[in-house]
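Field: COMPLEX_INPUT
Field: COMPONENT_COUNT = three
Field: RESIDUE_TOTAL = 1005
Field: MODE = joint
Values follow.
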Amino acid sequence: MMAVSKKQARALVIFSGGIVLVFGGGQVFHHVFASNRQEPVAAGAAAGPAAPAPEPATLHPVHYRLPSGAPRVSTGTTDPGGQPVAVACSTCHTTTKPNFQTHSGAQLVQFHQGLNYVHGNLTCLSCHNDQDYNSLHLANHQRVEFTDVMQLCAQCHGHQWESYQHGAHGGMNGHWDLTRGARTRNICTNCHDPHAPKFPLVQPIFPPRDRISVPLPGHQLQETTSLKPATSTSPPHHGTP
Amino acid sequence: MSSNGPTGKEGNGGTDGGGGGCGKSDCGCVSRRTVMKGVGATLGTAAFARAIAPLTEWAANISADEFLQRHYKELSLVDLNIVLRRLEKETKDDYGAEVTISDPKPQEGVKFGYALNLSVCNGCRKCAEACHIENNHDRPSHQSYIRVFEMQKGTMDMEQGNVNYDKPVPQPDKFYMPVQCQQCEHPPCVDVCPVEATWKEPDGIVVVDYNWCIGCRYCEAACPYHARRFNWTKPEIPKEEINPDQGYLSNRIRPQGTMEKCTFCLHRTRNGRLPACLEACPTGARVFGNLLDPKSEIRWVLEHKRVFILKEDLGLKPQFFYFFDS
Amino acid sequence: MSDLPPTSPVVPRPFSWRSFGRFLGNAALESLDGGKVFYVWMICLSAVFLVGANAWAVQVRDGMALTNMSDHVSWGLYIANFTFLVGLAAGGVMMVIPAYLYHDEEMHDIVIIGELLAIAAIIMSLMFVVCDLGRPDRFWHLLPPFGRLNFPVSMLSWDVIVLNGYLFINAYICAYLLYTRYLGLTPNPRWYVPFVFLSIIWAISIHTVTAFLYCGLGGRPFWNTALLAPRFLASAFVSGPAFIVLAIQVIRQAVGRHFGDGPIRTLVNIMRITILVNLLMVVSEVFTEFYTGGAHTSSGRYLYFGLHGHTELVPWIWCSVGLVIVAAGLLLSPSVFTNPWVLNTACVLAFIGIWIEKGMGLIIPGFVPSTLHEIVEYRPSAIEWKVTAGIWALGLILYTLFIKIAAGIFLNRTKLQALPDIQPAPAPAETPSISATS
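Field: COMPLEX_OUTPUT
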């Protein structure tokens, strides 16, 4: 009883208020009134194709988080302007003789010392191009730019590459529905260090709390928003106190 | 808190009444007895009013419009917009945050499916954290719709699993299995609800009308996947952490005493976006898409990977799948 | 209309709102009059009730986080008591069956004791459900046409219907019997016997439906057994008669009359059978659980022996098993008919034993381990104990008042006096519901 009369009264108020707002040009209320007669129409989702999209729909692009080009190596010095000086790989490697046997960071005597290198039985020059150190090469010695590194990975990691091509491997952001928006995808080296591709150990985010009734001292959410690689010796930095 | 105060008082007053009543022997007894009864009744009423005083504080926070709000499916578009604006205002009043509450509708030709690659999930719980933030969960309770189980390699026995792990992951002898709402085709939680406060939408998402739920928690008992959560208290979120992009049926801040659950982030996914847990996953273990689109990623996974369904024997036909890389 | 004087009981008199109003008024006055013991008893109960009311109000305001329930154990002491009390209400009908199905005349006279118990127990069980709701303000969502009752799919909607139906049937029968007695008439069987038979069927249904609430859940193997409903009924037909046997003796003391030896004998004979049937069912459940083994039995293992070092329920259930076995032994011994101490001990032990078995022993292990095999234990919080005690206190208050009214009328203390013809009949009051007398 009461609900009905209350509702009617409210509807009346809304109706009169709505007219005022329409004259005022309120877009939301305009939308409401326009779709008032034919009932089940999308309310909040004003945009977007509701019907199955026509086949040649314009698809938004998929962006890949590619490197900007060949890496540059820091020299540890700064220029007169105070900027760190970085040089291309070829700066040194054009004058050094390539060593086809090197397959561990410990074997390096000048640069790259202490490089953590765990990647099967490959040597450095299995991937790096001894003809042009600013690029890579495939197993058949075909030159590959750093930006096309996934071709190189795919030679050995075919299963992963197949899954990747079908969106079943690798993180992504943006839209599942490319008719409605773009998508950004990681490439192999965004997540896997090419020199040590095994995913590192990480410290997990906060565990769940199941006993709501038990008070927790200092109950703010842990500031662990960045996924930091954890060394195996580091103690767990949180948990239920 | 002050539960003993009124009661003790009433007890004293009442005992006096009893004593007075039994001390009667002359003919004036009737009136005296009546007086004592009156005093007892007055004291009793006063004590009762004081005992239930917290209810009035609580009721003061419930507006008439909120109390009388109709079921989601009975709201006309006009009513719905009024409700959305009212909820925005309530969020502003209660939490101090400016939010936008919309109500995206299911798309035709879309049925959502989710698959999770157990071969690569490393148990970092980033998905659970993303859910926590995206869905405006209660901060103190670390609430999230996702529970990640650290499972013993070589067995699917969940009794050997552990959700409270805190060592760096992945541990060599373990694999990790996040569990969230499986959006069943035959959801038992929907069947048991006595007031139709929860239902399955055409795009496969099981939703809750947080303003219709009476909080009996029968759905929580019925769900075999531990997918439902109850708001045991009013969610506590700092103003600046509130996600302002909210959906009526999904991540708006839930009222105290109602059920909530994973909605595949429908305020995002119905606008074509990926769910928050997928975007947060650093390993790319999660695959989301339209089950009705034969060219979708999710369909490729279902057709090419070794897929299994959690508790398939219950016959609930989930739209959430687990798979392994071969 | 009701112009006949009360001193002519042979002439059938039509129902009149005026005399019914006087009946309610007299009954209310009668129920509040009593001796010292009565007042002390009522004041103590009121005090406990107020504690409970306050605890509930605080719980509603601050949220159910004040209970020790969690997303794992989402039902606790409240639903445990609800389940038990539905059984108690159904058990009340165990006096009706001998009285009306087997024409036990002596039982006939005091069958109202059982029906009043059913009313009080149903009111209590409904209160437990309301206290378990996160949003009691939205209770109206259950009530068509404004609400949306999910009938017939949700078993809880069935439960809402059968519980309220049972409440109204029993309230009607009791009100009719007391009212006719009050008028000095003999009750007309046409007006209540059909309802009595309905209430027998209905009593079975309330407990069956309540069992179906649990055993229909495929995700909870501990409950998902066809034996649950029969087990509920068997245990209800122990706890109900046990309470009535105790109640009869208390009433005998209170009204200073000796009655009911025959009915007590009948009830004990019923309990002798039902308690053994109940034990048999427990044994078959335990056998099935433990002989089969496997993951589905972990709740059973948790309940009886503890699981992975979690043993919260083990003392409860063994306590219950012990109490029921001792009660069964006492009930089966011949001295139960001669020695009131044996009888009363047996009834108290059986009552408490069943309370644990149907409550904590049935509801909690359904949630432990959880559906994802996590173990989060549950122990009721202070708030939950307070609310529970408060509802029990209110139930006892109501039952005491009902019994006092009934006793006053049956012992001819409360009778319709000549109606003074001052005003026309008052406006139609509400239908005869028991709430009007409380």
